[in-house]
Amino acid sequence: MSLFEGGAAARQAMPLAARLRPRNLDEFIGQEHLIGQGRLLRRLAEERRLVSLIFYGPPGTGKTTLARLLAGASGAYFEQLNAVTAGVADVRRVIQEAADRLHLHGQRTVLFIDEIHRFNRAQQDALLKAVEEGVLIFIGATAENPFYEVVSPLISRARVFRFEPLTEADLERILDLALSDERGLGRERIEVEPEARRHLIRVSGGDARALLNALELAALAAQPGADGRRLITRQLAEEATQVRALRYDRAGDYHYDAISAYIKSLRGSDPDAALYWMVRMLEAGEDPLFIARRLVIQAAEDVGNADPQALLMAVSAFLAVERVGLPEGKIPLAQATIYVATAPKSNAAYLALRAAEEAVRSGPTAEVPLHLRDASHPGVRAQLGHGEGYLYPHDFPGAYVIQQYLPSALQGRRFYEPSDRGYEGRIRERLEKQDFTR
Prior knowledge:
Blueprint: H1 8-13, H2 16-19, H3 32-35, H4 40-46, E1 53-56, H5 63-74, E2 77-82, H6 88-105, E3 109-114, H7 121-133, E4 137-142, H8 146-149, H9 152-156, E5 159-162, H10 168-180, E6 190-192, H11 194-203, H12 208-221, E7 230-232, H13 234-241, H14 253-267, H15 271-283, H16 288-303, H17 309-324, H18 330-342, H19 348-362, H20 380-384, H21 423-433
Parallel strand pairs: 1-4, 1-5, 2-3, 3-4, 6-7
């Protein structure tokens, strides 16, 4: 029995989020795609059957709570470890106790490991035999992508379920429950102003624990009025939340998802969305040079010669951020982000690069035509014919003359097909007037 499973006084000392944990699946709020009527997890619970599972999703969305409820519904013994503090010895102890429990009493054991991604390969491998033989049922929880952080043998023995951030409607229900339920603040006559309510829900970011922690802190700070009621104002709500904790991990999914959204917003010519994702990353502590590097790449890949100035703007922003730093570096980064997002788009240069790479890697090893070879060394031209027949373009009108530049094996190949957008349209017109023998 833990400290918090003692008497009423001990339970009241628990944080609000812990006191309000659902006692059964019907009280669970959110994740309807997982435990709604007819869904797989609910059917497994109703049939008192359970398989090994991995719960993947952001904090405060119910992963630990649902693991407890599923274990209880199936009649299994529940054992919990945290991967930050547990080791192989703890895992082996639980496995042995689970084997004894199954042999002596016929009771299954659910081993729930929070932050399973913190276990190294050897620690995760220690679970494999017990899970494979059915000695215990494993449920892991992680905020990181398990397909990157959990060993593939363990993934293959479990079903992966993704938890989504709670919706505002879910958070509304949780807030109402906290204010009305006697396990929460139901006895304390707390009222929340509509603006304060909206603020608490908005800044919680889909995290029920963050919402309840802020609500509890605001309730403690609220002063009772003449009638004994305590009012949580917008100001109190803001003081309780302080700096919003953005869901972000510079080495995990949110890092890659946010930069992907930024890149796609640039490519899609939406400056508002691109600015939003840029600021979202900066506010969460992302390295501004990482963002600037991606901006340089996108200026070349997605704008290219439709507006050659875009690459110059992006490189200038990179140098400005590198030399000025934050917070002032945000300004040139925002300027360049808007420029690249609103510039005409063409990926013709990028596609030309890919086509040339394919020709080099998969084609024959083509020789340099004799007239293009270096003839600067004494005697080379006379003895080997290097450079003989080369036509110097500046000796001709418009500094242009038709001659072979590609290797003979690649004559006629075209890698660069300019679009008709922006400056690249002018390039296209000029090339159409020329007739290189390729």
